[in-house]
Design brief:
heterodimer, A: Methylamine Dehydrogenase, Chain H, Methylamine Dehydrogenase, Chain H, five-stranded mixed β-sheet, 9 helices, 54% strand, B: 416 residues, mainly beta, 5 helices, 11% helix, 39% strand, globular, nucleic acid binding (chain A)
Chain lengths: 1150, 416
């Protein structure tokens, strides 16, 4: 009964291609990222994203090629579930880049799957696609036969096993391909000292007979891990073979040519290549992120086009992200598709410039692989997810939060600002800023991107400004605590000044023709004319006035006949009639804190009154503008500090053709939000800034429609996003990071890192070396000391403490030689409940030893006042894979068992408790909830344990029965659990504690199966948005975030049964209606498939599919519902409005 | 055994977190594959009173084990969960007390419908083939023959609906369960009759049959010819130029005496056969060549049909193991080298069938009872130690009593 939705699409690059896909003239870069691919247009400046296409499948192969009867290229895609498709891109009425499926089909068969990733090569001359998916079989697709929409392949048996690479040789009479294979699987060469042997052989395809014939040319290679073949020459039998640290050219009847370069050392490992143009130049990159240029020097024999390569040259260009894919675009641009770091776009210089061979033009954020996450929710204020991402030098922490982003144009360093207003002085655009401080006011003039302070003589600079605006007939109104000034003549001439004799003005508000101000409990009303300011009326209210507003309800109007007043003492909102100042309505706020600001605003012809209270919450009412009545009160809590409400004209720039302006309300506080109306519902979207004091809209000639935001750090002039989205900030660490926890008491992150000398980088200093304070961890345990002194190691493992706000490394603790930190937690013990400790579990690593025989230790640290002290350590006889605080004790998973440790304050020592539980193979994951423990075993899948406090022992409650390889698991609630499986599936379980049969009680029921297509590494409870309205139908209590290898972040939400039923029906209807790219069935994409088991999907709702309902035209939305009543199987008993409202609510949680 | 040693698990787990290791599960299975021992604390709820002649495990869930006795009784056990200490319950049974459609003679073949365990097929020496609905345990169709049939098989590919039945008189009968037609008969083994029939793993049109005459024939059911290949033991795959391997001819014989077992390897390119001449041969399916692998003598005694079980690791074809019933023992061989890895002993009567459960990496074998073998040596030792712990003894008395009543068999002891 869960709803699964994507929060962050996969970011890891899984395939790249280039070609003229969108049209015959536009050269495209196509980047596949697991379940979606992005189409870019390449220009001389760089690349431009034009379309992002999602696929019901994980893209394994992406190739762009030209069919003989077309003038542009098509795209061939093969998914993980062996569904093949050929896609075309056409311009249509609705969409300039519509993706059409030319043909599709399943290329699945029953043969033994290969351990190598599928490989594909295309011969456009002979119109053939050659695929190698399973062992012993190659598949041929005849593109000429593709008249129907069905993609079909012919299986041809091939004797060679373990085919590593397969390539067509170009321009042969008959299609000819070359294969690189080994006779033994790769693992043989890793484990033993057998010499590595690889073979090349060539085959010719008999097109008519649909058969292959082995040709004479074969080669035996003894390269180190040969992994790529690059055919060279035309109508030739020659190829470049790239191994781990070797490059060789093999040619029929010729001597082999091998490169000798000092760059290729024993430790080098080349992992990807690309060809530059058609020339004899290649880009290579290794696993340290070094980019090389390979040049084949050659002689050309004029007559027969045959080419002899005379020499191979290899140059080092520089350092890039560790990449799995490189592709050369043109104009010296190349795209680096990375799996461990950010993807990059680079420009390669023909001549060296400033000592470098290339520049990085752009980088594209990649969160994958997400190894661990921690969720921070400080008083529901700053929901933030921190992920451990990347590997080796490209490792980083990513700080992820959701909100409306600010695009900063300019900033002014001014502090202690109380208010800010924009003025148009002799200009149709805003060009001046009035900035109020306590006891003074300053005026700034903005011209283009320059800001200068000016003093126009008629303005009052000696007092704090309360309100300032352009008023009728090119005049300006400045209301300070001292007086009201009507200013004309471009700010030079003070026309009228009105002073309240006795008291200061406390609050004020104005529009172009009207003005109200209050002094204590007195209220004054003025009307503004040309050169005059007339006091029309005044009255006295029973209590002091806290806030005022006379903004016209219709922004085109110049005046209003209503005034909103907030009062002190008797905390209430009053509506009075202008100009008579008759009280129309009194509304008690039932609050202890005074109203801070009140605003009248019209959203979609419905007037509202919003009131913000001094302790953060916002109350809003519907307003009857005729009678001045307030009704339908709603309350929302935002920040905790006083909130100021300001109306902004928010201009939508994303759609340049129709610049539409809409009115939004900005709530400035420590939890700044934008309040707007979306589909008849007030929406609160948080702004991605820490704290905003005040704000004004600023329609600049130079920057366009923008905002000035005052923060405690200064003034920001910028533009805000239209919708709320994820914002990711990254902190590059320069060394692998595996685990993270956040310590709330001290506001620090603790991370476990590993630095390897092999993968050192010149550009980044690793985080453990940046720390202010560096400590070496010692041990008093004899056995560990002996072991770690013996061996030297090339890796250094550290525990690093980072500051939450500055994100600087405060302390790094270097562990012993060969000691690896495996687990981390923060704990308070029962005997000492006030002190939080940091516990780190470590293993002493040996090369190739038995896992069970390892030594390890638990180290207890105390962090306080920027000091880290090691309290104690405890030797254990195996590796502590997971540690958790549990019932005031330390729960440790060691090998296949779970043990408890207690801490004795007197002895300052960890003491092992007698109780333990023994699982089957090896504990991979532990999760706890109350006194329940979720134990995930390497092969025995999930077990639920309960710790019996009275008897001090672990009881096995239930276990799942299907053996599967679990990667992560989590509690959904007391009775339901979720786990992810290594083939990219999610499984949910529940336990049957109430069952009367013992057999049923001890078995975990499968509640749902779902193919997610992502390998989840970690689950964390939490949700990136706060639930603001109480009236919502969904509860965010049991939200679970999940992080995957591909950089995917997903959200699992538990649904009530009725909602589940409704959404499931909608999912079935939508799955039928929405045409998928490649015509893959939704049900087959989501169906559970793992090694040895397959089943249909149930118990999970595909949120990504459900949310497409919102994008459908209104008529279709209605049609889907009404049609459902005609059919006799699925029925939707709801209306379009209700459904849209529900789905919108769901779409807002991520 | 060295070959079955695998990389360090901690490193593999770390590589998996980074998405660099895709064959983790296979490596973990390999680790356990050659290290089987008798699961002493796993019982199957006893049912059969006579010796068990055949078993079959369902393919879709690898969970339900059908077993058929020589008195015609059939029973189905639920083999999950595969805990260390457990008693597997009977899901249903078919005998004269519970079902009037029961078989009256020895059960020769039991078949689960591939990819869906809602249907199964039984073949008995009462010359009847019955098709059953699993959920209701009700016979839905029945075919009666005039001749004895010893073996039946169904292709494992999707949408398969044809059952091949091997008759005593040498006829190969094809039954399409969709149309109910059972008239398609191929006269392939003419002399003494067929013992065995097996469909190819990956092709629903090809089948292999083994006869009492020692011939192994490959037949394409679409073709009018009776068979397209006949395996010849002298057609040898070798690099030695001097040995001239004989080509397959019509009179080729795979074994000197009758064929007792046919099993395709999961890689789809090899076939293992066991003959009454006490030899096991490995063949290349594509060209019919015999690979020179010497497994040594395999005593088949007088078991009519042996079911051997092959386990092959997906990531590494060379890691293939076959479990061969051999008298009272189950021998474990490395398929490609012929090396005998270990011998599993525990049965008191000759073993007829071995079934490998790929999902939970365990082996089921049957003679007069069904035993479960798994890589649980260390766990069992741990368990035994914990049982000796006096505090825990009370709660476990019942289980201990059960254990003590069982005979305990040493796994290290070898025969002869």
């Amino acid at each position: 009964m869960n709803y699964v939705v994507t929060v962050q699409q996969p970011t890891e690059v899984t395939a790249v291609a280039t070609g003229y896909f969108t049209s015959a003239t536009e050269f495209n870069l196509i980047v596949a990222k697991n379940t979606h691919f992005e189409i870019y247009i390449i220009t001389c400046e760089g690349v431009k994203l034009i379309k992002d296409v999602s696929i019901y499948g994980r893209i394994k192969i992406l190739k762009c090629f030209r069919l003989s009867n077309m003038n542009k290229d098509v795209l061939f895609i093969l998914t993980d579930k062996s569904h093949g498709m050929i896609l075309d891109c056409q311009k249509t009425e609705n969409d300039p880049y519509e993706i059409l499926t030319k043909c599709h089909g399943s290329l699945k068969d029953n043969n033994r799957a290969s351990i190598q990733p599928p490989s594909c090569t295309i011969d456009t001359k002979h119109n053939l696609i050659l695929l190698r998916i399973s062992e012993g079989i190659i598949k041929l697709i005849y593109l000429k036969d593709l008249t129907s929409r069905n993609l079909e392949a012919y299986n041809i048996k091939i004797n060679e096993q373990y085919i590593i690479d397969i390539q067509f040789l170009s321009d042969h009479q008959k299609p000819t391909f070359i294969i690189l294979y080994s006779r033994k699987p790769e693992s043989y060469y890793i484990n033993s000292n057998e010499p590595e042997e690889y073979y090349l052989c060539t085959y010719e395809i008999e097109v008519k007979e649909r058969d292959i014939r082995r040709l004479t040319w074969t080669e035996k290679l003894t390269l180190s891990k040969a992994s790529f073949l690059i055919p060279i020459g035309q109508n030739d039998f020659s190829a470049l073979v790239i191994g781990r640290n070797s490059i060789e050219i093999c040619k029929e009847n010729n001597k082999r040519l091998e490169i000798k370069s000092s760059l290729l050392q024993k430790t080098t490992s080349i992992i990807c290549y690309c060809t530059i143009d058609e020339g004899y130049r290649y880009l290579l990159s290794d696993d340290c992120g070094k980019l090389y240029l390979l040049i084949l020097e050659h002689d050309k024999h004029n007559e027969n086009l045959s080419i002899t390569v005379t020499n191979i040259k290899l140059d080092l260009l520089g350092e890039i992200s560790t990449s799995r894919y490189i592709i050369y675009l043109n104009n010296n641009l190349a795209f680096i598709g990375s799996n461990f770091g950010d993807s990059q776009l680079i420009r390669i210089f023909s001549e060296q410039q400033n000592g470098s061979h290339f520049e990085i033009l752009e980088s594209y954020a990649n969160l994958g692989p997400i190894l661990d996450m921690c969720f921070i929710d400080v008083e529901r204020q700053s929901q933030q997810l921190v992920t451990c991402s990347g590997n080796r030098k490209d490792s980083s922490l990513r700080f992820i939060r959701t909100g409306i982003g600010i695009h900063e144009h300019a900033s002014i360093d001014l502090r202690n600002i109380k208010g800010i207003w924009a003025l148009k002085i002799n200009n149709q655009y805003d060009n001046h800023l009035v900035v109020a401080f306590f006891d003074q006011t300053r005026l700034f003039h903005l011209q283009n991107d320059e800001i200068e302070e000016v003093e126009l003589s008629a303005f009052d600079y000696q007092h704090q400004t309360l309100f300032c605006t352009n008023v009728t007939s090119n005049q300006y109104l400045q209301i300070t605590t001292y007086s009201i000034r009507l200013i004309g003549d471009s700010g030079q001439d003070l026309l009228v000044e009105w002073k309240n004799m006795n008291d200061e003005i406390t609050v004020a508000s104005a529009n172009t023709t009207q003005c109200v101000c209050a002094s204590g409990n007195q209220l004054f009303y003025f009307e503004i004319g040309s050169g005059n300011l007339t006091e029309i009326n005044k009255c006295e209210l029973p209590h002091n006035i806290a806030c005022l507003d006379i903004t016209p309800l219709d922004i085109r109007e110049e005046r209003t006949n209503l005034c909103v007043i907030g009062l002190w003492t008797q905390i209430s909102i009053w509506i009075c009639r202008l100009p008579t100042l008759d009280i129309l309505h009194k509304e008690l706020l039932t609050s202890d804190t005074l109203p801070r600001s009140a605003v009248m605003i019209t959203f979609d012809d419905q007037p509202y009154v919003f009131v913000s209270l001094a302790d953060g919450p916002i109350i809003y009412y519907l307003l009857n503008s005729e009678q001045g009545l307030l009704y339908e009160r709603k309350k929302v809590s935002l920040g905790t500090k006083p909130t100021t409400l300001t109306i902004c004209q928010h201009t939508d720039l994303s759609n340049s053709s129709t610049v539409s302006s809409r009115t939004v309300l900005f709530a400035c506080s420590d939890h700044p939000s934008v309040i707007s109306l979306s589909n008849n519902k007030i929406v609160f979207s948080s702004v991605n800034l820490h704290e905003i004091v005040c704000i004004c809209s600023f329609n600049s000639e130079y920057y366009g429609s923008s905002l000035t935001l005052v923060t405690d750090m200064g003034v920001i002039l910028g533009r805000i996003d239209d919708i709320q989205k994820l914002h990711v900030r990254s902190l590059v660490l320069g060394e692998s990071v595996q685990r993270i926890v956040f310590m709330d008491e001290e506001k620090i992150y603790i991370i476990l890192t590993q630095y390897m000398d092999v993968y050192k980088s010149d550009s980044i200093v690793s985080i453990s070396k940046q720390a202010h304070q560096k400590i070496d961890c010692t041990t008093k345990i004899k056995a560990i000391e002996d072991l770690t002194n013996q061996q030297s190691s090339n890796a250094s493992n550290s525990i690093v403490i980072l500051d939450q706000h500055t994100r600087e490394a405060r302390i790094s603790v270097k562990l012993l030689n060969n000691e690896e930190a495996t687990s981390l937690c923060i704990i308070t013990f029962t005997d000492d409940p006030a002190t939080p400790y940091i516990v780190v579990g470590t293993t002493i690593g040996f090369e190739n030893d038995d896992d069970e025989q390892r030594l390890g230790r638990l180290i207890l640290f105390r962090y306080k006042n920027n000091q880290l002290n090691m309290i104690t350590e405890k030797e254990i006889n195996s590796s502590p894979y997971k540690i958790l605080p549990f019932q005031g004790k330390l729960l440790v998973a060691i090998g296949n068992s779970v043990r408890l440790y207690n801490f004795s304050v007197e002895k300052q020592e960890l003491i092992q408790q007698p109780e333990s539980y023994t699982g089957r193979m090896k504990c991979l994951e532990l999760k706890i909830k109350d006194d329940f423990i979720l134990f995930s075993d390497l092969l025995g899948s999930l077990t639920i344990l309960r710790y019996n406090i009275n008897e001090n022992k672990f009881e096995e409650i239930a276990r799942s029965i299907y053996p599967q390889l679990t990667t992560a698991c989590e509690f959904i609630d007391d009775d339901t659990f979720i786990c992810s499986e290594s083939d990219g599936n999610l499984i949910s379980y529940n336990k049957n504690s109430d069952s009367t049969k013992e057999q049923e009680r001890t078995i975990l029921n499968e509640l749902g199966l779902y193919h997610l297509g992502e390998e989840i590494n970690t689950f964390r409870h939490g949700c990136l948005v706060t639930q603001q309205t109480t009236e919502s139908t969904i509860s965010l209590e049991n939200c679970i975030l999940m992080g995957a290898i591909s950089g995917y972040i997903g959200l699992v939400l538990q649904l009530p049964p009725t909602l589940y039923q409704l959404l499931m029906s909608l999912q079935l209807i939508l799955a039928e209606y929405v045409t998928s790219i490649g015509k893959i069935d939704h049900s087959s994409w989501r169906s559970f498939r793992s090694d040895g088991r397959s089943n249909v999907s149930y118990g999970f709702i595909d949120g990504d599919l459900i949310e497409t309902y919102l994008d459908l035209p209104k008529t279709v939305q209605l049609e889907l519902i009404t049609n459902s009543h005609k059919g006799n199987n699925i029925q939707l008993n709801t209306t379009v409005e209700e459904l849209v409202k529900l789905i919108e609510e769901l779409s807002r949680i991520h | 055994m060295d070959k079955y040693r695998v990389p360090n698990r901690a490193n593999l787990l770390r590589a998996r977190e980074y998405g660099l290791e895709t064959s983790f599960i296979h490596i973990e299975q390999t680790r356990r594959l050659a290290d089987f021992t008798l699961c002493k604390y796993r019982n199957l709820t006893s049912y059969h009173h006579s010796s068990i002649s055949t078993m079959n495990l369902d393919q879709s869930e690898s969970r339900y084990l059908l077993s058929g006795g020589s008195n015609g009784h059939i029973c189905c056990h639920d083999m999950l969960p595969s805990s260390l200490v457990t008693t597997h319950p009977i899901v249903f049974q078919i005998d004269r007390n519970s079902n009037r459609d029961h078989h009256t003679h020895n059960i020769c073949s039991l078949l689960w419908y591939p990819n869906d365990n809602g249907l199964f097929v039984t073949l008995g020496l009462d010359k009847k083939l019955k098709i059953w609905d699993t959920n209701q345990v009700k016979m839905v169709d029945e075919y009666e023959f005039s001749n004895f049939a010893y073996s039946a098989h169904m292709p494992s590919t999707a949408n398969a609906s044809v059952i091949a039945v091997a008759h005593e008189n040498g006829d190969l009968r094809l039954i399409d369960i969709r149309s109910g037609s059972d008239s398609h008969v191929i006269h392939s083994h003419t002399k003494k009759g067929i013992c065995l029939v097996k469909w190819f793993n990956n092709n629903p049109n090809l089948l292999a049959s083994g006869g009492v005459d020692g011939r192994v024939l490959f037949t394409d059911v679409r073709s009018s010819r009776a068979h397209y290949m006949s395996l010849d033991r002298d057609n040898i795959l070798t690099n030695n130029e001097q040995i001239k391997s004989r080509q397959t001819t019509v009179s080729s014989v795979a074994h000197h005496r009758g064929v007792k077992s046919l099993e395709f390897l999961p890689d789809n390119t090899h076939l293992l056969t066991v003959g009454a001449d006490d030899l096991m041969y490995l063949w290349n399916v594509n060209n019919g060549q015999r690979l020179l692998v010497n497994y040594g003598p395999i005593t088949t005694n007088n078991v009519r049909i042996l079911t051997i079980a092959c386990a092959q690791m997906k990531h590494d074809r060379t890691k293939s193991v076959v479990y061969v019933p051999c008298g009272k023992y189950v021998r474990v061989y490395d398929i490609l080298t012929g090396q005998r890895l270990t011998t599993l002993s525990g049965h008191l009567m000759p073993v007829s069938t071995c079934i490998y459960n790929r999902l939970s990496v365990e082996l089921y074998s049957c003679s007069d009872d069904i035993l479960v073998w798994g890589a649980v040596k260390k766990q069992q030792e741990d368990y035994e130690i914990s049982m000796k712990n006096p505090e825990r003894r009370n709660e476990a008395t019942k289980t201990l009593a059960q254990i003590l009543n069982r005979d305990q068999w040493s796994d290290d002891e070898d025969e002869d």
